[in-house]
Amino acid sequence: MISPKNSSKETIKLALLLPCLTLSLCANTSWASVTSSYSEGSISNTMGNSTPHNNSITYTNKVIDTNSLELETVTFSSTPAPYILVSAKAYNRYGETMAQADGTMSYSIDISGPASTWIPVGFGGRYWLFGQDLAAQTIDEVQTASKVGFSVGGETGFSYDCGNHLCTSNTRHTGRSDIWLNETLISYDSFAGTFGGVTEILTDASGHATQMVYMDALSRSHAFGSILTFYAGAFIDPEFYIDPTWLALNPGATLSLPLGVGNAITPAAVPVPAALWLLGSGLLGLTSLTHKRKELLCSQKRCL
Q1: What is the pTM of this model?
Q2: 113/119 Cα distance (integer angstroms)
């Protein structure tokens, strides 16, 4: 069983890529929730919480001997910024081994405003996928996979899935919602980007509405007879706000989350497992990348 521990103090700096999300326009969020729901956990390991927590919690599973290693970590944060960070590392000198880490989180957002009215709620956030040879094959001794997913209301969302040296993404929306992705290829081993969109939520006759937010992250590292340690990981982090233009015409409307769940993207420093901080430092070069390498990969049908 994976056991909890405090998140490592090792950090990486991530640029705040989304406009508006830290501005006063998005400050129409209360901490009191009419209907409160929160859950976090893992598909493959027995762990998680059904209530928010003040500090990020990392669950770790480690199996090691002279010739092999399996290391899996899952980090959950509910405040001040809700996020999931998962990582998996593996090697096996004489055979094969696989490490997999996954996490899921769900919580409610509650809207109060005019009765029987469609209220536009904006959202945005960041995601990060990384792993050895994630987008192209350079080493025969490893297969990695990394995935993130997000949805609000179950009908509006996206998934980004990397596996078998190929990365694909898809979005889904309704006639009353929209969503978009902005992605950057950092290297063959890493993708990072932002997402954003808007969904209209219908209040009832009393002027209230509730929607559920779902997000998940998965990483898997499968090593074949190598002394090298191979890695994979994923990160996702959302935020919500009532559309500022609509709110200016309806100043009494509010958006609230369960007590103890933050509503912000991560600050400049994001806690990550100590073993991954060198890998994460690649994000520091995010803004200096050109698109030529990505166009080359896509022309070779290695990414979408």
Answers
A1: 0.77
A2: 8
